[in-house]
Amino acid sequence: MALTKTKRGTEPPSLAERLRDGAEAAFRSLEAELLGQGPFGSHWIDVAAMSLPQQAWLIHALHLLTRNPGDYQRTPAVARLVGHARRHTAEPGEAAFEREVLAVSGWTEAVFPATLTVPEPADLSVVPAGHEWISEEVDRRLAAAPEGRLDPLAAADLGAVVQAALRAEFPGNRYEGPLYDGYDLGSRVRDSVELPGGAAARAAYVTMLGGDPAVLDSDPGLAGRVGRLITRDASHGPGREVFVPAADRALLTHAFLHVLAHPGFRERAGRLEEDLVALFTAEYGEGAPPGDGPAAALLEELGSDRLKVAFFFGRTEYLGL
């Protein structure tokens, strides 16, 4: 997913020119350029209470926004950046700074999908996997699952690395999503052994694999293996906790990507979630992408950008839905 810029007919003042009369003058000029002389009062009263580094970050962020025209809502964009300045993660000049500013402001979510065409409606019906495939997939995952207990300190450190890498590499999740809303992945990592392995959890796991949970009723042995696998695999919880059996980058990236899935995508195309998470894990974490299945077919037909817009922004029309 690449960000593109469009030059204006006349260049606005440089940041250095705006700063000649101080931070307040610079902020107010940027605010006026973005919002115009509308009925809303200035945010300066909030900005004046910030530390100097926070003010500097915000002024750089607004200056960047003026250099990226597009059809997005400017009033909430400025308000979000003002609110975000105290918890920003990337500094001006860093590779992740532009991605953070454009994501938090809502620019990416509004502007980037408009650069793509919506495909023709498609039939994405998926035939549930049969008993034989589910059994083989469970055994494959069990054989690959790490042994032992999770090292919480190593997991916390790796969680911070994974979250920072996605901020730097992905051009922005939804503006209220867990990349930028204050969510701390490192503090939310739990050991997969804490996950329940009862009947409901086993049925949900088989559904996640693309199968019919009814296969468990006729095969108690498979049900037992699924219960063990749940405690040895990556997953996520309703409170945005992530569960992994080891401090492994691919597993942690996989679990975190589930947390990043847009609720609208999950509601309308949730049957594709596991396949797309595996695809994105290979791109942003480690491992090989799936060689077949729905994600591989959609990648070839629609391209990576449409899949990301659907998954991360909930714009499932870009899947043909």
Descriptive account of the structure:
With 321 residues, the protein is mostly helical. The relative contact order is 0.11. The chain has a 3-stranded mixed beta sheet with strand order 1-3-2. It is built from 16 helices and 3 strands. Helix 10 crosses helix 11 (220-230) and helix 15 (294-302) crosses helix 16 (304-313). The model has no long low-confidence stretch (mean pLDDT 90). The chain folds into 2 domains: 15-115, no CATH class; 131-319, no CATH class. Helices cover 52% and strands 2% of the residues. The chain is elongated and about 75 Å long.
Main traits of this protein?
mainly alpha; 3 strands; 52% helix; three-stranded mixed β-sheet; 321 residues
List strands and helices in order, with pairings.
Blueprint: H1 15-18, H2 23-35, H3 44-47, H4 52-66, H5 74-84, H6 95-105, H7 107-111, H8 131-144, H9 152-169, E1 189-191, H10 199-208, H11 220-230, E2 235-236, E3 242-244, H12 249-260, H13 263-269, H14 273-284, H15 294-302, H16 304-313
Parallel strand pairs: 1-3
Antiparallel strand pairs: 2-3
Helix pairs in contact: 2-4, 4-6, 8-11, 9-12, 10-11, 12-14, 15-16
Number of strands: 3
Strand content: under 5%
Distance between the termini: 21 Å
- On the 0-100 scale, what is the average pLDDT? 90
Largest sheet: 3 strands, mixed
* Strand/helix succession: HHHHHHHHHEHHEEHHHHH
Please give the share of residues in helix.
40-55%
Number of helices: 16
In spatial order, strands of the major sheet run 1-3-2
| CA gyration radius, whole angstroms | 23 Å
